């Protein structure tokens, strides 16, 4: 089992790190970002996709992302040239996927499970936003 906060990679050994929809599951988001910073070469780039709450601290949002705000976290971890942008197009595409799954009349247990997840996700969808964050390690 991997650990996002302890990769085992050598210091300054990679030019890029990509985290796709996984950061929110880490117990310490800052520890993960610090590990990314450690393994990146000077001028290396980190790219993250995940969700953030529309309103910080919203009790209706999962505790995993309730207080997540990538820009200050990336800066605290030592990243420069930090950019965070909401990706409304990704949000809309994912929403359409869930709606299409709900429209399929299929009693297969896998489809029923997917439809149950679709209902749970769609019920709280407007409380979250899809984001893309990029940070660069400072050059020496």
TrEMBL record:
GO terms for molecular function: S-adenosylmethionine-dependent methyltransferase activity. Residues 2-48 form the Methyltransferase type domain. It comes from the Bacteria. Signal peptide: none annotated. Gene3D superfamilies: Vaccinia Virus protein VP39. This is Methyltransferase type 11 domain-containing protein. It comes from Lentzea guizhouensis.
